[in-house]
Amino acid sequence: MIFTLRRLPGSDDVRVALPLVRRTRDPHEGQWALPGGWLDVSESLVAAASRTLSETTGLAPSYLEQLYAFGAVDRSPTRVVSIVYWALLRADDVSTELDSADQRENVQWFDAATLPRLAFDHNEIVDYALWRLRNKVGYSRIAHGLLADEFTLAELREVYEAILGRRLDPANFRRQVENSGTLIPTDRFRTGSHRPARLYRYNQDVELADRGPLGDRD
Amino acid sequence: MIFTLRRLPGSDDVRVALPLVRRTRDPHEGQWALPGGWLDVSESLVAAASRTLSETTGLAPSYLEQLYAFGAVDRSPTRVVSIVYWALLRADDVSTELDSADQRENVQWFDAATLPRLAFDHNEIVDYALWRLRNKVGYSRIAHGLLADEFTLAELREVYEAILGRRLDPANFRRQVENSGTLIPTDRFRTGSHRPARLYRYNQDVELADRGPLGDRD
């Protein structure tokens, strides 16, 4: 599962979006589903997740994290345990890779808040991932995965607003992140149609809830 | 994997402890390992975890949570993916169930901080679980799983100290938990050899990082 943020056309609203694949065979032929595939005997879980993602969507995120293993007996006509991985992609990575993904038939990006009925238990899986995302944004630097290395406070707030699904007060938000010690102000500014806004980056020295001793293992 | 807290004999120290099973066949015959077993085609993941736990240790925790799926290619002579569940047991639950568990040959409780070299990658799995436990204690009511329904602030602090592996200042700790809004003082007191200490319970109305929309599914 890949999440990114997309600005709705003709709007200031930024939303969480994800790519889905239209199933070309039964069960659930014609329905949209999360990209996935089988584990080869000689590949690790994360390697299989990367491979099937790249084969089905053309996307290759630099970092996938294990989300959850779904194994209810009735989730598929035959017994299938799905070990789901997820990634956050920065909007600029997506836009460069989107051309190739969009060229693939049967792959399409959806607004996570207004999904159709998906194949299997995939709506439940997306709901669980969105819940984890909302929780996680509070205690880790997960928002970083959706931003460029340097960003303005307004851009960071937009990420939080998209994930939490509600507006945040700009002054309160600024105070909270400035007090958290997780951001480092740079000497650079974003200029454009608005007045210049200072760029920040994440302080990598602050220990937050990351993957811990697992590192790159799976 | 089951964690509980145990007071070291002849000491005031409380430590995180877990039950291990001595392997009676190859690979790794004679080494200690986490309890586990195979998934039947007609049982859910959590049902299989409960069943194998009960068969091997005699313990039946009321609540198991999925920890992580371990699937490195070389973690076993044949390809094995282990979907690990964990539970926290209150010390009083353990002491009643311990007799039956201790009667089983080849089952023994270990101090999590001083484990021997375990079979397979089970040391890594325990290390990962301990890391998750340390992280989680900060942002959820996970400590609750190790306590009776009502507890003193000193008992709660002991849980945090055991998980974090360091002493906490009693006055600071009291201030932090009182400010958190997660505890409700009762009208009851623990009496005994010390001066009476007020009993608290967790405020179930505070929404913290629990399992979310998954509920009891797996």
From TrEMBL, chains A, B:
UniProt-listed PROSITE patterns: NUDIX
Domain of life: Bacteria
Domain called Nudix hydrolase: residue spans: 1-134
Database matches in SUPFAM superfamilies: Nudix (SSF55811), Winged helix' DNA-binding domain (SSF46785)
PANTHER family with a match to the protein in the record: ADP-RIBOSE PYROPHOSPHATASE, SLR1690 PROTEIN
Designated name of the protein: NUDIX domain-containing protein
Organism expressing this protein natively: Microbacterium arthrosphaerae
